[in-house]
Design goal:
The complex is a heterodimer of chains A (425) and B (426). Chain A is mostly helical. In chain A, 70% of the residues lie in helices and 4% in strands. Chain A has one domain. In chain A, helix 5 runs antiparallel to helix 7 and helix 14 runs antiparallel to helix 15. In chain B, a hairpin with a 2-residue loop joins strand 1 and strand 2. The chains are: A mainly alpha (425), B mainly alpha (426).
Chain lengths: 425, 426
């Protein structure tokens, strides 16, 4: 999280670390010693930065809402754009200008690996969707299915080309710098693409599985800020001195309550809950998954006195939402701690400065990344009914057999199953 | 590759120019000529002694390797796991700094925690289907194993998150940079080590042939490059490894491709090497060789003179694939060695370890193997499997591996997918 207020406690050598969130009218002892004008400027400055931060938050919120309204494909495009910006920020972070001048093509090599990773990751996730989109035309279909069949080989050779290029570009006194940059590139791409791979997989399972966790993280952030602002006293962790236990616990409770209620609200929209099987952008309609069908449970005694309704409609997904909320409040903040520690280790203030008041894209996405991975794994393990062997075989059938062969397999299998049924009866 | 000659090429710039070609055994090098005769003799003796040590440990390695191959798939996997543990240890130790480590007591344990998590993840994914097939007979075990597989990803993820949180909670005030560096280094090591092994092990279970042939080709390329360079080496190949020469490279390439063609023929005739292993048993293997390993005869009448005794040769179709493997092994795989050389030079280390006398550490031996193993698996999955796959084979798999309910479920899902496809086409 970016420290936008003027009382930046981490880097001032004179005053001791300010361990509590300032209340708007509390006067720290150091400032009291100085004259009144500085106090006024300090306050004004802090309110101005809070205003900038709120302003850019609103813009981001509006933009994301628009994209969600437009659909899966546009959300994917937004994720790709965010990735490019994040990778840019991170690539630039540990480059050293003087050494880069002697190594002209090194930036290009980074983007070559980025492109290869993108082809690999999105190829794997979206291959079936792509096939479903182009089944209309015979030529396209064959081209696309060939691309998919040889996707691994293509990506591998692109990677090997980059690898060989790297080795041939090693220059005598820059070995250590170049190897460091190579490792750094790999780490960046792994971090950026792992989370985006899982995010995109979540999106096509249903926008709910992307929107809901993102909302929880934002909710957790905002709630932590306000709880800390009003009640913050005991520091949470040495890495981020602005965080407090009161903020943490208050935000956790708020997040879990919000998780339960938001899931109910969001789960009623078909636009958010239906999976998208192809890359089209039109309206979506589907039979809602059982976890989005409301179940009626009788109202507990103490509430039924106040409210006329006898039953309360609970979507089964709300129970899953509680687990997501728990993770978002307890584990996801560690993504932020990691980023803080990293910035402290390498003595950088922010990852970038694309977003006014917030820092760079990576500053915003640090907790989101941890959450996206968890949501995907949770979804695959506890929500979706999986049949491992069936999936593997279906994968093989779809990937390696042509359409006519698939039909032949289908008819033969149908015959065998029918014979077996007749025998059993 | 380890430098075993006493006049190493990475000498500091104060010495006379780098020795760019392989020494011939009786060639007198200008610098040594200036020294007295006693030194020359010692030089020679020590060089022969190191060559002997190198040959001795090579023979031992090849011997134990052949024994493991004879024993079977499961033992080969175990050997790979052991090699991985040693490689990880060498690499973990490489960039640690002793005095910083004393102040961070649990840090080494964290590395091994991540190692264990990675191993669980990679081998769980690879061996899950085979594990299921092994316990297919026992109902209780089958359910236990299926649920383990179902929650495999969650378990591995929880272990990783635990390690992640542990790392963050152990960050100590003035050691941030060192700790983050070590964290990144740990991840890179685990990716390199487990990435290549996660491609090697599936190759083994597809048929030992797909593991043995690439590994043998790398060894042949190495040895052939050494000898060609020894006898003919003159023009240097790349600044990174001054001992390598163009003559060695080209000679080794030709040798590797030819031996790939011939070795594939020899190896392809053994059922032990060509049959895939569907479960984790260790007994004898029996299977239908498949199209790839069935010999096809080509007549030589138009090609060879009349006195040539053989009128036709039988070629296994797999030999053509072996040519591609040989080409890769001779041209691209050496770049794995160059990478390792550059790395050692960048961080000013002589070898990754010293487990193997005369050769350095395990990572020194495995650097080219890793690049080759990945390629062999990807090649196999992309070009070999689709060729040999047919409707009958998949039908067999369905009927063998799935229960009745699962077969019907697959039938239904396949029907849905095909219907959607038909709808789109019309």
């Amino acid at each position: 999280m970016r420290d936008s207020s003027a009382d930046n406690s981490c880097s001032s050598p004179r005053t001791p670390n300010l361990r509590q969130r300032r209340r708007s009218n509390e006067i720290p002892p150091e400032i009291l010693k100085s004259n009144g004008t500085i106090l006024l400027v300090n306050d004004k400055f802090k309110y101005k930065s809070m205003w900038i931060r709120a302003y850019s938050s609103l813009w981001m919120l509006a933009f994301v809402s628009l994209i969600i309204y437009m659909g899966h494909l546009y959300i994917w495009a937004m994720i790709v754009v965010i990735q490019i910006f994040m990778a840019s920020e991170l690539f630039n972070l540990l480059r050293r200008a003087n050494q880069d001048k002697r190594l002209p093509k090194f930036k290009l090599l980074n983007w070559h690996f980025f492109f290869t990773a993108m082809l690999y990751v999105y190829g794997r996730i979206l291959s079936q969707h792509l096939v479903n989109t182009v089944t209309s035309e015979k030529i396209f279909y064959r081209l696309v299915s060939n691309l998919i069949k040889y996707q691994m080989v293509i990506c591998y050779f692109l990677y090997i080309a980059g690898f060989v290029w790297f080795i041939l570009s090693l220059k005598k006194r820059y070995y250590k710098y170049q190897f460091g940059q190579y490792a750094w590139t790999h780490m960046i791409l792994i971090v950026v693409f792992t989370q985006s791979a899982f995010t995109v997989a979540n999106i096509f399972q249903g926008i709910f599985w992307f929107l809901f966790p993102a909302l929880l993280i934002a909710m957790n952030d905002v709630a932590a800020y306000f709880f800390g602002f009003f009640f913050g006293k005991t520091p949470l962790i040495k890495l981020s001195p602005k965080k407090t236990w009161e903020g943490f616990i208050g935000a956790s409770v708020a997040t879990m309550i919000a998780a339960f209620t938001f899931a109910n609200f969001l789960g009623r929209f078909q636009w958010l809950t239906c999976p998208r099987k192809d890359l089209s952008t039109g309206w979506l309609e589907c039979d809602p998954d059982p976890i989005f069908k409301p179940e009626y449970i009788p109202m507990p005694e103490f509430i039924s006195h106040w409210i006329p309704e006898k039953e309360i409609a609970v979507l089964p997904v709300q129970w899953h939402a509680l687990w997501l909320g728990l993770f978002a409040s307890i584990i996801a903040p560690f993504g932020g701690f990691f980023a803080s520690g990293f910035k402290r280790a390498f003595k950088i203030k922010d990852f970038g400065d694309s977003i006014p008041g917030h820092g760079g894209f990576t500053d915003r996405m640090d907790c989101q990344m941890v959450m996206a991975v968890f949501v995907y794994i949770y979804h695959q393990s506890f929500v979706v009914q999986h049949d491992y062997s069936i999936d593997v075989l279906l994968d093989q059938i779809m990937r390696d057999l042509g359409f006519e062969e698939q039909l032949a397999l289908y008819t033969k299998l149908g015959q065998i199953l029918q014979e077996r049924q007749l025998m059993h009866i | 590759m380890q430098k075993d000659t006493t006049t190493s090429s990475s000498t500091p710039p104060t010495n006379t120019g780098r020795i760019r070609h392989r020494k011939r055994s009786n060639e007198v090098i200008p610098e040594d000529g200036k020294a007295n005769g006693g030194k020359l003799l010692v030089n020679d003796k020590s060089k022969y002694k190191s060559m002997l040590i190198r040959a001795y440990s090579s023979v031992w390695m090849i011997g134990s390797f052949v024994l493991i191959i004879y024993m079977g798939h499961l033992y080969i996997t175990a050997m790979i796991v052991v090699i991985q543990i040693f490689m990880a240890r060498e690499l973990f130790n490489l960039l640690r700094r002793a005095h910083e480590d004393k102040q961070l007591p649990g840090f080494r344990l964290l590395n091994w925690h991540f190692f264990f998590t990675a191993m669980l993840f990679v081998y769980g994914r690879i061996l899950s289907q085979r594990l299921v097939n092994t316990v297919n007979s026992d109902k209780v075990l089958y359910r236990l194993v299926s649920s383990l597989i179902k929650y495999h990803m969650v378990v591995c993820y929880s272990l990783y998150i635990t390690g992640f949180i542990w790392f963050i909670l152990t960050l100590k005030k003035k050691m941030y940079k060192y700790q983050f560096g070590q964290y990144a280094w740990t991840h890179m090591i685990l990716i390199v080590v487990f990435g290549q092994s996660s491609f090697t092990v599936p190759s083994i279970f597809e048929g030992i042939f797909w593991f043995l042939l690439p590994a043998t080709l790398i060894v042949i390329n190495d040895i052939a490059a050494y000898f060609f360079g020894f006898f003919f080496g003159r023009t240097p190949l790349i600044k990174l490894s001054p001992k390598k020469t163009w003559e060695g490279f080209i000679g080794a390439s030709v040798t590797t491709i030819i031996s790939a063609f011939m070795l594939a023929n020899i190896m392809g005739r053994s059922q032990w090497l060509t049959c895939p292993r569907k479960d984790l048993s260790t007994g004898w293997l029996d299977c239908d060789p498949g199209l790839l390993f069935t010999p096809e005869s080509y007549s030589l009448l138009g090609w060879t003179p009349l006195w040539f005794p053989w009128k036709e040769i039988s070629i296994l179709p797999v030999q053509w694939h072996a040519l591609c493997l040989g080409l890769f092994a001779s041209i691209i795989a050496p770049f794995g060695g160059f990478f390792a050389s550059g790395f050692k030079r960048a961080f000013k280390i002589k070898d990754f370890g010293d487990s193997i006398p005369g050769h350095g550490g395990l990572t020194d031996r495995m650097d080219c193997q890793m690049v080759m193993a990945v390629f062999a698996y990807i090649y196999h999955q992309s070009f070999v499997v689709p060729q040999s796959l047919s409707v009958e084979m998949i039908l067999d798999q369905i009927l063998m591996n799935l229960s009745f309910d699962e077969q019907e479920a697959l039938y239904r899902r396949l029907g849905e997918m095909l219907q959607q496809g038909i709808q789109r086409m019309t």
